[in-house]
Amino acid sequence: MKAIRIKLWQDLVNYKKPTSFQLKETYPLPPYSTVIGMVHTMCGFTSYHPMEISIQGKYFSKVNDLYTRYEFKNGMTYDEKRHQLKVGDYGVGRGIATAELLVDVELLLHVIPEDQSLVPTIAEAFETPQEYPSLGRREDIATIQEVKVVSFERNVRFKKNISVDRGYGAYIPVKDVEDKLVIFGQRSNIGRRNNLGTRYLLTSTYELINRGTAKAPKMFRNWLKKDVFYATDVTVSSRRFYSKDEDDKLMFVRMEE
To answer: Are strands 90-113 and 23-24 parallel, antiparallel or unpaired?
Structure first.
C-alpha cells in the first residue's frame, strides 16, 4: 500500500482542547480530526473520504497570548451598561482571554486513504496547494517542507530497533501500548524504562445524528474518538511486529478489530 508522508512546520499554533474555555489550552499535536479536515480542505473534497492518519512531531516551547473574545446569549437584547457591541437589537460582550500557543512546531504526518486511487490527488494538493495551508486555527499557517509518496508495510517484523526522530512525540493507540508493541519513556538510573505518557481521547471522524423530527430536523455531530497515548522517545523493538514506511519511519496506525 501507499501513503503520503508530509512534513510541516508552524510558527505559533493552538490545537484547541474542546473542554478549555478561560484558557484556550492546546494539545501537544493536532488531533486526528484536525488533520483529516486539513486534507479534505486542501483537496477540495466535498464528502468524507475514509483515511488513516499517523501523527508525530515536536515543539520548542509554549507561550500564552491574548486574543479578543466575544460573548453573546441567544435573544439577549442590548444593554449599554453590559454590552460593548450592538448587533441589531442584540448585545454582544467583548473582552480578552488567553490562548496557549506552541512555538516552532514540526510535524511528520502519514496519510493513508482507504481508496488508494486518491494517493496522487492528495500528494498533488500538498505539492501545489491552491491556497495557503493551515492546521489548527485558520490563522495557523503551515509551511510544507516535504511531500513524499511512500510504500509501507503493516505488522512487519523489524530487523533492528526503530525509534521516532529525536525529540519527537507521537499519538500511539492504547492497544499497542497494552500489547507491549512499543517502548516509550526514558531510562531510569537502574536501566528500566518509565512509562511517561499522557492519555487522550481524540476526535477522529463524526456522523450526523438527527435529534429532532423528520419535519424539524436538528442535526448534531456524533464524534467518533480514538484512545491514544501521547509519548516521546518511542521505540519499537526488533522482536516486535509493527508498521513502517520504506524509509524506516514508524507509522502509528492500527487495523480496526
So the answer is: parallel
How far, in Å, are 2, 12, 68 from residue 95 at the CA level? 48, 22, 6
C-alpha to C-alpha distance for 79 and 82, rounded to whole angstroms: 5
Q: Which amino acid is at 145?
A: Q
**Segments of the chain scoring below 50 in pLDDT:** 187-191, 257
How does DSSP classify residue 26? B
Interatomic CA distance for residues 228 and 251, integer angstroms: 14
- The answer to whether 15 and 34 are in contact (CB under 8 A) is yes
DSSP string across 30-45: --HHHHHHHHHHHHT-
User: Which pTM does this prediction carry?
Assistant: 0.88
Q: Which domains does the chain have, with CATH numbers?
A: 2-245 (3.30.70)
CB-based contacts of 64, cutoff 8 Å, min separation 6: 23, 98, 99, 100, 101
**Checking DSSP bridges between strand 90-113 and strand 85-87, what pairing results, if any?**
antiparallel
What are the grid coordinates assigned to 25, written together? 489550552
CA 206 to mean position of chain CA atoms: 15
Distance of alpha carbon 208 from alpha carbon 216, whole angstroms: 15
Closest listed residue to residue 196, CA positions, set 188, 186, 205? 186
Closest CA to 224 of 239, 207, 241: 207
Percentage of the chain lying above the pLDDT 90 cut: 65
